[in-house]
Design a protein that fits this description.
The protein contains nine helices and 14 strands. By secondary structure, it is of the alpha/beta class. The strands form two sheets. A seven-stranded mixed β-sheet has the order 6-5-4-3-2-1-14. The protein has a seven-stranded mixed β-sheet with strand order 7-8-9-10-11-12-13.
């Protein structure tokens, strides 16, 4: 079987009428791992678990596919995992590693013959419109490839995309308020430096918490490993998966010291709920 077909077959849910599946397209921080110009042990590692594209996930059930963030590596991620259809795009925030693959969405417009709704908070949509004016602003260009996107402001409510309930979560990212998302009994939170009480209420009873843990040292805009573990202990999900990881985390070494129920995410990891 050709590799692209194998990737597609691996991604198809086992029971599309029951299971929601989440695919980790990337699990690295803004530089990716290995980082450019770095010859540290992790960046030079031959362990494939230490290769991390920029963070993003794909959520799918009953043929409806949600993409969370258009990472810088989106084209490579879609080719690697045989992604041929996207129905909804959710943005956590407007920083480069989470949005700069936006132009790749035009391929899905062309082949699926439809415009794509893209959801974000007011701040995210403002910066998308400003930074990608050729997409969201008036243009004199005729022909060529311009993504056909329909911006939608996120509201404080639970959406239903296909059969997937999605609840936006306000999250602190330094001075910014960005979005995490709850999908059924799973929450995806990245670039987090703090979780407001209002969002903690929406995170009760989780089976899976996907949470950022940038590195070992404190950081002004991201949870460190110790902060992520503290948040997981407070929220008490059944399972915690750490993502948005920098090049100081050797997968094998860090995994050995994690508490029970906590693990590092891997590019290509799948979970079913």
């Amino acid at each position: 079987m050709p590799s692209a077909q194998r990737a597609i077959s691996q991604w198809v849910p086992r029971r599309v009428d029951i299971f929601m599946e989440i695919l980790f397209l990337g699990t690295g921080t803004s530089t990716g791992v290995p980082s450019l110009c770095c010859d540290c042990e992790v960046c030079l590692s031959k362990d494939p678990r230490n290769k991390r594209l920029r963070s993003s996930i794909l959520v799918r059930q009953n043929g409806h596919t949600i993409l969370v963030d258009t990472s810088t590596d989106l084209r490579q991620q879609c080719l690697r995992y045989g992604i041929q259809s996207i129905d909804t795009v959710l943005y956590t925030h407007h920083h480069a590693d989470h949005v700069h693959g936006i132009d790749e969405l035009r391929s899905f417009n062309f082949f699926n013959k439809t415009a794509l709704p893209v959801y974000g908070n007011a701040q995210t949509l403002h910066h998308l419109s400003k930074n990608f004016s050729y997409i969201f602003g008036e243009t004199e260009q005729i022909g060529g490839g311009i993504p056909q996107l329909i911006p939608q402001k996120l509201e404080d409510k639970t959406y239903c995309f296909g059969d997937i309930p999605v609840t936006p979560l306000d999250i602190h990212h330094g001075k910014l308020i960005i979005n995490g998302f709850r999908f059924k009994d799973c929450a995806y939170i990245t670039d987090c430096s703090g979780i407001p009480d209002s969002s903690r209420e929406k995170l009760k009873g989780l089976k899976v918490l996907i949470l950022n843990a940038l590195g070992f040292k404190p950081h002004p805009t991201h949870f460190s490993l110790s902060q992520a573990l503290e948040a997981a202990e407070d929220l008490k999900p059944e399972r915690t998966i750490l993502t948005h990881i920098n090049h100081h985390f050797d997968h094998e070494k860090v995994s050995q010291d994690l508490p029970k129920g906590v693990e590092l995410a891997l590019d290509g990891m799948r979970i079913a709920l």
